[in-house]
Structures are given as structure tokens and as C-alpha cells.
Design goal:
- 46% of the residues lie in helices and 21% in strands.
- The protein is built from 9 helices and 9 strands.
- Residues 119-126 have low confidence and may be disordered.
Length: 280
């Protein structure tokens, strides 16, 4: 006997799950949206899915699922940059994988879905022994991506992205928003980036001189601290410093960027004072 599918139930379940997925994706990727937009994104994805199910009588496949996910993200967050779009996509995929693996494992091992009626047995559709492997692989991936999780989930509001253009070259890295950084140069805050991240901006000969401790030719500002006997903070005069924080982007021109000769131990390559994230 063929199972009976009630489209209103499918729509309500899809709407709720899609909205939850969009909300979690935004939290992980560091974006916020009004609740009505998240619910609208879930509603739109669920509506398209149910219309396709009614017209064809079957799921649309992998590419159709990607299209639905993209439509939901577009309605809920409307990302303006390709990088932000990919961050949202990746976060949504991760959440969908973890939710699907955990829920399928629960249903397979406990048959808890029968509490709401006798439905399809998950074991016949998805072999139960694949579920522990999928969840286990997700756990290993999350452990290996510990620094990324720290920067994008646990402490994502404390970080921003910086792109530095100098002498026709450019680099991009993650920066910690350092409330204790009070350095100023010409009335503007000073970002400090570790030397290893800035080296690609220099030619080979310049890299050798800098690594050997020869800072001649670089800009500097007065700066005294423990371990800095000459009272100088060396740096470069960047053609552009582009700071991105969520959908917010601020561009500075001809700005001093300091060089930290050591390495930062966290999931970042530099420090940015909060004043630089305010519009000039």
C-alpha cells in the first residue's frame, strides 16, 4: 500500500526546519537578520519545495536542494559579498549535516518517530551503520577546525577581516578587535599585523633584510613597551586598509599599519582598535 502524504504537514514541517536552519547558519557565520525575514526565508523555501513535490511527485534532487538553500539565504540575509555568501552556505551545510545525522541516528536506534504515528522505518532507507560514521566524521571535523570555530562561533563578534594593499600587492587576514590598543597616528587608530602575514607584500630582497632585523626604509611611530628598547613601532604606509565586519565595510587610504615581529597565538593575524570600525 502506498503511503499517504499530507502536503500541509510537509509544508509546516519544512517551514519550521528551514527557518531553524537559516537562523543557525546566521549565528555560526556571524550574521544577523530580523526574525520575520528568517521566517520568510523558511516560508519561501518550503513553498517552492511543496509546489515542486505536488507537480512532479518526487524530490528535486541535490541541485534543487542547493537552489532552495540559496533562495532561503537570499531572502533571510541578502548577502552582498561573495565571501559572505559562501560563509552562509558553508554554515548552513554544516548545520544540515549535523541535524540530519543526529536525528537519523536517534530515529534508527530508538524508533522514536513512531511516537507520532507509524511512519517509514529509517533503517530501510538509510543503513544505520552509516549514521555513527557520519556523526563521528562531523565530530572529528569540528575538532580539527577548532580555531575556525573559535573565531567564527565562540568569539566571532571579537573579530573582523582586514585586507591590506601595499605597493601593488595585497593580503587578507583575520584581526582581533583589541579594546586595549590605544595607538594613534595622525589622529587615526593603528592596526598591528604579525610579520609573517605582511611578508608577501615585500620583494624577496626586502624580506631577507626585514627577517635579518634590518628595518631601514620602513615607516615608524613612537612606541615604548617591554621588549622594545628603541621606542619605535615599525610598519608600512598602506595604500588601502579595508576592514569588513559582517556586512559592514570601511576603507582607509594612506594609513599606517604596524608590524609585530612575533606571532599571535590565537586564530588571528593582527590587532585592530575599535575606533577603526567606526565610519570616518
Amino acid at each position: 500500500m502506498e503511503p499517504t502524504i499530507y502536503i500541509d504537514v510537509v509544508f509546516l514541517v519544512s517551514w519550521g526546519m528551514d527557518a531553524f536552519l537559516l537562523w543557525e547558519a546566521g549565528r555560526i557565520a556571524g550574521f544577523s537578520a530580523k526574525k520575520w525575514r528568517i521566517f520568510l526565508g523558511g516560508f519561501f523555501s518550503a513553498l517552492i519545495y511543496c509546489l515542486q513535490l505536488c507537480s512532479l511527485g518526487k524530490n528535486g534532487g541535490f541541485l534543487f536542494s542547493l537552489l532552495l538553500l540559496g533562495c532561503g539565504l537570499f531572502v533571510a540575509y541578502f548577502p552582498k559579498q561573495g565571501r559572505n555568501w559562501l560563509r552562509l552556505f558553508g554554515a548552513a551545510w554544516a548545520i544540515a549535516f549535523l541535524m540530519g545525522g543526529c536525528v537519523n541516528m536517534l530515529f534508527t536506534l530508538t524508533q522514536a518517530q513512531r511516537m507520532l504515528g507509524r511512519g517509514l522505518v529509517v533503517e530501510k532507507v538509510y543503513p544505520w551503520w552509516l549514521l555513527p560514521w557520519s556523526v563521528g566524521m562531523a565530530y572529528v571535523f569540528l575538532k580539527l577546525a577548532g580555531k575556525w570555530l573559535e573565531a567564527n562561533i565562540q568569539r566571532r563578534k571579537e573579530y573582523c577581516t582586514a585586507k591590506i594593499l601595499f605597493d601593488g600587492k595585497g593580503i587578507e587576514g583575520r584581526m582581533l578587535i583589541d579594546t586595549g590598543n590605544g595607538l594613534k597616528e595622525n589622529g587615526r587608530g593603528v592596526a598591528v599585523v604579525q610579520l609573517s602575514a605582511l611578508l608577501p607584500l615585500f620583494f624577496r630582497e626586502e624580506q631577507i633584510h626585514i627577517l635579518s632585523g634590518n628595518m631601514e626604509g620602513l615607516d615608524w611611530i613612537s612606541f615604548t613597551s617591554l621588549g622594545n628598547p628603541d621606542g619605535r613601532l615599525y610598519g608600512i604606509r598602506a595604500e588601502k586598509l579595508i576592514l569588513s565586519f559582517g556586512e559592514k565595510q570601511i576603507i582607509y587610504r594612506n594609513i599606517f599599519v604596524g608590524i609585530n615581529e612575533g606571532e599571535f597565538t590565537g586564530a588571528y593575524e593582527g590587532l585592530v582598535p575599535p575606533c577603526l570600525l567606526e565610519e570616518e
